[in-house]
Amino acid sequence: MRQALSGFVSKSPFSIKAIMVAALAVTIVAADVASALAAKSAAIVVDAKTGKVLYSADANGRRYPASLTKMMTLYLTFEALAKGRISKNTPVPYSAHAASEPPTKLGVRAGGSVPVETAILSMVTKSANDSATALGELLGGSEDNFARMMTAKARQLGMNGTVFRNANGLPDPGQFTTAHDMAMLGIALREHYPQYYGYFSQRSFLYGRQRINGHNRLLGRIKGVDGIKTGYTRASGYNLVSSVADGDRRLVAVVMGGASGRSRDNQMASLINTYLPRASTRGGGNLIAKAGGDNPIKTLAKVFLPKHDAPTPDEKPAVDDTEVASADDNAADDSTSVAEETKPVIQVRKVKTVAVAVMAPAPAPQETASQIEATSQTVAAYAEPAPAAAPAVDPVRTSSVPSGWVVQVASSPTQSGAQALLDKTTKQAPKALADASGFTVAFDKDGVTYYRARFGGFGSKDAAWKACDALKRKKISCYAVQQ
C-alpha cells in the first residue's frame, strides 16, 4: 500500500509539498478574510431627544450583529407583554434545540422551563443564547418563523439594512445589520416600552442560588449609562449599544467591530464624553414610529432580502465564535476598568452636527434579480404554517402568521405569476377580500417548484367558505383549505 501510494505521488503532477503549500495558502486567505471582516469598525452617536446624528463612521455599512440581535428578540417580547399575550410569569419551554445552543447560556435542560422574566434577565445580563431561542420559539412557533417576524418588525421600525436569521445572534452568513439600525432599535426600545426598559440596566440577578453577572462593564462605571447590550463573535468583533442620560440630555451610541472588549469600551467612553455635552436639552416625543398594527407579510413583500451581502462570507463561522462564558465580551479585559474620567483613547473626528433624524431609514440598497428571488422565497416561507406554540400562548395572535383557514385561488410556476394572480383577484373582488391578506407558498412537484396564491386572515371555516363563494360568483375559481 505504501509503495502504491509512493508511486501515485511520484507520478502525480502535484507533489505533497505543493499540495501542502496550496492548502496553507487557502488557510491564510480564509484567515485574512475573517480578520478583515472583524477589523471593520463602525460607530454612530445619536441625540435621542432630537434624532440628530452627532457622529457617524460607516454607520450604514453592513456588519454582523452578534448578540445585539437579542435587542430585537426582547423588543418582540416586550410587545407581547404589553399586549397581554404573555405575562412575566408565563412559562418559557426549552426545546431540545434551545437547550442545545452553545454558551453563553442559562443551562435549562430540554423539556424544562423558566418564567418569561427569568428568560429576559438571562438575556440582558448573561446574553443567554438558549433563552433567546426559547423565547423565539414561544412567540413565533419556531425560531425560523420568529426570525421572519424580527425582520418584518425591523422594516416597520425603518431598519432597512437589517436581516435576522435567528433569535440570539449566533453566526449566520445571512444575518446582518448596521450601526444606524441598531441605534434606531435602541431608541425604539426605550420610547415604545419604557415600562420594561429598566431590565437593560440590570447588572446581575439571582437564578436559584447562583448570582449571574452581566457583560456590560460600562454600567455603573460611566455616569448616566443605563444599558443596552453587548455582543461578540469572532467574525463581528466586539459590539456595544449604549444609552446615556445626563440631566436633560440623552444619547444612544453604537460601536461595532471593536478589536477587544477593552478597546470597544474605551471607544464608547470617548464618544460619550465627547458628544454628550453637545446633545440638546430640548426636544421630545417619539422619534421611531411604533407601527404595531401593520401586516408583517405585507411589510416583507415590499422589501428585498438578499441571501448574501458583502462583507458577509459564504462559510458559516465555527461554533466556537459564539459568546462563551469563559471568554465573553469583556472577560479578557476585565482587569481594566473604564472610569467616568477616562481619557479618549481614539482620535474622534470632529464632524459638524448633521440635522438628520435617526427615524429616517437608511436608503435601501439597489436590488438585483437574485435578491428579488430571495425575497420571493422569504415571503413565501413566512406564509407557511408555524408549529403550535406553548399552550399558555395563543399561537395565532402571537405568531402573526396566516394560519387556520385560507382561500387558494390558483398556483403558478413563478412567484411573480402567483403574486400577479393575487393582485388581479384583489381588484376583482375587493369587498370579499377586504380583511384578507394575500401571500404565496412555494411547493415542489416532480422536482419543479410552484407557488400557490392564497388569501389568509379568515377567523373560521365559515368565513373562508363565504369568501370563496363570493369569488366564485365572480367567476374566480377557488377553494378553502385549513393549513
UniProtKB/TrEMBL annotation:
It comes from Mesorhizobium shonense. Belongs to the peptidase S11 family. This is D-alanyl-D-alanine carboxypeptidase. Pfam families: Peptidase_S11 (PF00768), SPOR (PF05036). PROSITE patterns: SPOR. InterPro entries: Beta-lactam/transpept-like, Peptidase_S11, Peptidase_S11_N, SPOR-like_dom, SPOR-like_sf. Transmembrane segments: none annotated. One of its GO terms (molecular function) is serine-type D-Ala-D-Ala carboxypeptidase activity. Residues 325-335 have a biased composition (Low complexity).
